[in-house]
Design a protein that fits this description.
- The chain is an alpha/beta fold.
- The chain has a single domain, classed as Rossmann fold (3-Layer(aba) Sandwich), CATH 3.40.50.
- Helices cover 31% and strands 34% of the residues.
- The strands form three sheets. Strands 1-9-8-7-4-5-6 form a seven-stranded mixed β-sheet, with helices on both faces. The chain has a two-stranded antiparallel sheet with strand order 2-3.
- Strand 2 and strand 3 form a beta hairpin.
- Helix 2 packs across helix 3.
- The protein is globular, with a radius of gyration of 18 Å.
Length: 216
Amino acid sequence: MVKILCQQNSILNQYIAEIRDEKIQQDSLRFRRNLERIGEYFAIRISEHLVYDPREIITSLGVAEVPVLVEYPVLATILRAGLPLHQGLLNVFDKSENAFISAYRKYHKDGRFSIQIEYSSSPDVEGKVLIMTDAMLATGASMVLAYKEMLQRGKPLHTHLIAVLASSEGVEFIRRNLSNTEVTLWVGAVDEELTAQAYIVPGLGDAGDLAYGKKI
């Protein structure tokens, strides 16, 4: 299942407009904060699909019955661009356990690249709801490899994948490779073009560099 949130009017589109804007991008603090706010928005939307039980809450004037989460989801992110997005989710799901995956593009002499998982740290995810985030979904290969890496920690009850921006090619890659799994893909916006170097156009540039500075 794929949910593209820009197809309806909401404040999310304002945040996406700002992270795309090359002038606003010059303020890395605002760029990170906008990613964080986008993470909070995704968290609220996903929270509508979780399981709740009624609980009696004692107030100063009586007792109120309130539906509360049965179990908090596990939050996982692909380093490094996904960190502000992850923080936004954690602001909402503040009791969640967390997982981190280090993935990078390994370039070859012929100009092609492959995705390498260098490190991962995760709790047990068996039978739990898992939310995985990455700022950009270009080819989709990083997300699929990261998801398979998480399966080494157990089989989640359901997995929600989040990307702020995706290419149409990346969305189709997820469809093809994870079609028989309990996975929902949440995307802020989808751009049609993906360059030969696997950059999304118009996209927004390198989200990791914009958030934390250029790497060597």
